Amino acid sequence: MENRPDRYAWADTPARTAFPVASAGYPYIFAGAFVTLVFALLEWEAAAVLFLVVTALVILFFRDPDRVVPAGEKLIVAPADGRIVHLDVVEAPPFIEGPALKVSIFMSVANVHINRFPVGGTLLETHYHPGRFINASLDKASEHNERNALVIRTDEGPDICVVQVAGLVARRIISWPRPGDHLSRGQRFGLICFGSRVDCYLPPLAQPKVRLGDRVKGGTSVLGVMP
Asked: At which of 6, 37, 61 does a domain end?
């Protein structure tokens, strides 16, 4: 059911390295590498190998691959990698006036955790809410977990909302745009550390191009088409 456009473009300037890593991961990677080195110098082989594996896993988690973005009017792309766990119209969505088509993507720790703008538009406002850390694959995580919402005035006109939701082990939500910033469709805007969820609230008449259970790639997969 996924739409497959025949034209693509870069939303961000491609990285100069073959394996780009998000800068937010550097402290975790350097810490793991330092501990690994200490254990190696102490000749504690088992501990050194364990932390070497942990460091490698952290590098994989913070990988930040370049993505080509489908070109075409009114396309909505996935803001994150993962699996579609909710797809339905809700009558009273948070942060924007409803009703809205809610599309939720669950990211496991194995997914790329970089978040991308689903549409081209201007960031109107952000709303941060501290909360709990329920399993992000559950719908109640949208209401109870730590989350950060971005309200976007799309280039097509309607407002949409993208909500970064912390997961079971996530403890840090990162989002760098500020109100007034204009971002292109597929452009990076943040990430959530160590397992999470992203909720999209779209116009109720938006035409979905995914089904429950589908796996999507941030910036590349088409979620739907604006009305």
From this structure: 61
